[in-house]
Write a sequence for this structure.
């Protein structure tokens, strides 16, 4: 495993279509590359958040010829960095079903491993909206650990963070970094965002990268922001500037950075060896 990796995580308010969003975030990705980021991480719904369920069906791209995926491949090649696309709302090639899919793109632009969000956000968090992700997307069913150079990243998306067994399995499978790209709702974010992410880092002795959507989107939902990079001891290394009193799109756009030393993973796991101390039990 490499000794250190410079990570950048983006925070922004995705537009109602891919063209709008890609124009918005290209300068942010360029900024991250300019300061030497080895890995640039984007949030869930990286290319757009649709104004309605009907428009989602129209705007979702076919994976086989996705303009957004191709564009991100070109961006990775131009930047010379690994690019973690938090997720694209996309039609998978084999059957055209909609999935919420995360991709890791190599610095040469090659599309690497992908992960389909396992846990569908079917919830009512008290913000006047009922979220029913399972009505739009096919749930994934496979855990994914991807190699980013010599580093191993456990892939997840947003609501997955509430299911700690997934992260224990990712860490046990060799992940030193856990990615949690998100479009976290504002109300639940205020209550749970920081504590959930810090807990996943502490429980597993892993770095956590959580790029985030922030602001009020075309469909009326408001996302929380506060993109984070957390070390294996649960300490926040970087947090995006977020004015919770401002919900305007783009007002809280930010890029955060951290240089992560993988020796910290081994130090945390030696200090509190919860991975190796796990014991079977009856239920």
């Amino acid at each position: 495993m490499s000794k250190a990796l410079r990570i950048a995580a983006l925070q922004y308010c995705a537009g109602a279509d891919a063209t709008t969003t890609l124009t918005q975030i290209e300068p942010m990705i360029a900024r991250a590359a300019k300061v030497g980021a080895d890995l640039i991480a984007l949030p869930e719904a990286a290319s757009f958040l649709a104004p309605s369920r009907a428009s989602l069906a129209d705007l979702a791209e076919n994976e086989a010829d996705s303009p957004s995926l191709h564009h991100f491949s070109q961006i990775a090649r131009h930047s010379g960095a690994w690019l973690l696309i938090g997720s694209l709302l996309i039609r998978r090639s084999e059957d055209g079903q909609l999935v919420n899919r995360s991709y890791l793109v190599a610095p040469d632009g090659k599309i690497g491993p992908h992960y389909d969000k396992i846990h569908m956000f079917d919830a009512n968090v008290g913000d006047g909206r009922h979220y029913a992700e399972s009505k739009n997307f096919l749930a994934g069913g496979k855990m994914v650990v991807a190699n980013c150079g010599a580093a191993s990243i456990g892939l997840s998306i947003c609501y997955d963070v509430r299911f700690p067994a997934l992260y224990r399995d990712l860490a046990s499978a060799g992940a030193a970094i856990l990615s949690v790209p998100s479009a976290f709702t504002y109300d639940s974010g205020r209550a749970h965002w920081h504590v959930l992410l810090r807990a996943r880092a502490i429980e597993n002795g892993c770095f956590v990268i959580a790029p985030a959507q922030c602001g009020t989107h075309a469909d009326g939902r408001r996302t929380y922001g506060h993109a984070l990079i957390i070390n294996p001891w649960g300490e926040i290394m970087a947090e995006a500037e977020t004015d919770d009193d401002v919900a305007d799109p783009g007002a809280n756009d930010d890029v955060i950075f951290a240089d992560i030393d993988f020796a910290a993973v081994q130090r945390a796991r030696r200090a509190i060896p919860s991975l190796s101390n796990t014991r079977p039990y009856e239920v």
Notes: The two ends are 37 Å apart (CA to CA). Residues 186-204 form the longest helix (19 residues). The chain has a mean pLDDT of 96. The longest strand covers residues 82-91.
